[in-house]
């Protein structure tokens, strides 16, 4: 699948992708700089999209780690499976609100998300926040890319420690919200 096909999918499904372009390499690197990959055995990505964050995670994770990538677009899932079809990368074509159906009670070291929470219905959004905070190890982190600082306040009911970072090296400029319990 070529980039123009991926961009078409991005615009056709703007309500679920929530972006006008894919995350820049600078944004991906900054987001992932807040994650401790050494020793992280169970990693979850919410919103795999074109695979730019997925690639960064795979490049940093331990060889014996498992990455679960949740994506609701079948088009994007097909592309992700072609790019990252290995035993330790699980591409799941389902909503992130069903995360608990796929991890068999495993605790998660890292959750990395680019979900467009401001466009997700409140009931689904709440389920994602609740399940993510419950499945995260006490030492784990939930790291979110977003375009509004106000999203930070939605995380406050589910995570006790929240900090933010900002980068201009993306279009549009983006916030990174780093949460842990």
UniProtKB/TrEMBL annotation:
SUPFAM superfamilies: S-adenosyl-L-methionine-dependent methyltransferases. It comes from the Bacteria. The keyword Transferase applies. Pfam families: Methyltransf_25. InterPro entries: Methyltransf_25, SAM-dependent_MTases_sf. Residues 43-140 form the Methyltransferase domain. GO terms for molecular function: methyltransferase activity. GO terms for biological process: methylation. Keywords: Methyltransferase, Transferase. This is Phospholipid N-methyltransferase. The lineage of its organism: Bacteria, Pseudomonadati, Bacteroidota, Cytophagia, Cytophagales.
């Amino acid at each position: 699948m070529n980039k123009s096909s991926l961009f078409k999918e991005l615009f056709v499904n703007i309500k679920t992708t929530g972006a006008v372009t894919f995350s820049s390499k600078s944004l991906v690197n900054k987001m992932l700089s807040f994650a401790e990959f050494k020793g992280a055995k169970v990693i979850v990505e919410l919103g795999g999209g074109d695979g730019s964050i997925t690639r960064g995670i795979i490049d940093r994770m331990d060889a014996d780690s498992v990455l679960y990538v949740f994506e609701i677009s079948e088009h994007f899932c097909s592309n992700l499976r072609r790019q990252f079809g290995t035993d330790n990368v699980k591409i799941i074509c389902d909503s992130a609100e069903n995360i608990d159906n796929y991890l068999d009670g495993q605790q998660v070291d890292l959750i990395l998300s680019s979900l467009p929470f401001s466009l997700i219905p409140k009931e689904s959004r709440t389920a994602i926040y609740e399940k993510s905070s419950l499945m995260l190890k006490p030492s784990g982190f939930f790291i979110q890319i977003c375009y509004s600082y106000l999203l930070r306040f939605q995380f406050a009911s589910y995570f006790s420690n929240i900090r933010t970072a900002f980068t201009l090296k993306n279009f549009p400029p983006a916030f990174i919200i780093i949460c842990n319990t």
